[in-house]
């Protein structure tokens, strides 16, 4: 590759800008070495930059001058999922997915956007604020439905437990909490 032409103003700016930004420092130092007469291979060795990168930096300098080297045109991919965030949030709050694989499948069905498990997991956690909740077993009589069981607990709370707690608050008695273990084969989402 032919050596670029450096003007005096450019050399002074290279000298100044080579200490401004960590990534810009490397670019400016490499170009400063080339402007001082160093060969590309020598500049590559001194700055620990590959020959291909030096060629790319020199091409940027030729095309856009020092300002081009001072700018980074990094392109970050943007996700299509935030467009569907509202509908996905409603869907997942109404019917939480049991696994990330299920969530990924449901995202694809609802939006047509196919994403891997990691991307879906990050979307659920960061964008929707969802988190994994572990299911645990609760004691439940096999002869009762969940609704009947909940109604019995509510009745116990109002008729039995609350009066005893109130008497303990008035220092007329004591309440001790102990945990009983009831075996139940199965798991319910609490």
Describe what you observe in this structure:
Helix content is 57%, strand content 0%. It has eight helices and no strands. The chain has 190 residues and is an all-alpha fold.
Strand residue content: under 5%
Total helical segments: 8
What kind of oligomer do you see? Answer: single chain
Largest sheet: none
Low-confidence stretches: none
How many domains make up the 3D coordinates? 3
Instruction: Give average pLDDT, whole number.
Output: 80
Quickly give the structural class: mainly alpha
Radius of gyration: 33 Å
State the helical fraction: 55-70%
Distance between the termini: 69 Å
Instruction: Give a count of the beta strands, DSSP E runs of length 2 or more.
Output: 0
| SSE topology string | HHHHHHHH
Inertia-based shape: elongated
Secondary-structure map with pairings?
Layout: H1 8-17, H2 22-35, H3 40-47, H4 51-69, H5 85-94, H6 100-111, H7 117-127, H8 146-169
What is the compact description of this entry?
The chain is mostly helical. The chain is built from eight helices and no strands. The radius of gyration is 33 Å and the shape is elongated.
Task: Give short descriptive properties of this protein.
190 residues; 8 helices
């Amino acid at each position: 590759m032919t050596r670029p032409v450096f003007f005096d103003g450019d050399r002074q700016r290279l000298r100044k800008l080579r200490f401004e930004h960590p990534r810009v420092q490397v670019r400016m130092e490499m170009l400063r070495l080339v402007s001082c007469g160093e060969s590309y291979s020598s500049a590559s060795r001194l700055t620990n930059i590959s020959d291909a990168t030096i060629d790319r930096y020199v091409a940027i300098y030729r095309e856009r001058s020092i300002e081009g080297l001072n700018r980074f045109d990094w392109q970050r991919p943007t996700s299509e999922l935030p467009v569907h965030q509202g509908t996905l949030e409603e869907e997942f709050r109404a019917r939480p997915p049991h696994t990330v694989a299920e969530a990924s499948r449901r995202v694809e069905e609802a939006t047509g956007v196919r994403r891997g498990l990691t991307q879906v997991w990050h979307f659920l956690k960061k964008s929707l604020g969802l988190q994994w909740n572990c299911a645990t077993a609760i004691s439940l009589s096999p002869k009762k439905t969940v609704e009947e069981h909940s109604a019995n607990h509510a009745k116990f709370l109002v008729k039995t437990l609350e009066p005893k707690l109130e008497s303990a608050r008035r220092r007329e008695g004591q309440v001790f909490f102990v945990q009983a273990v009831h075996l139940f084969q199965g798991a319910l989402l609490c």
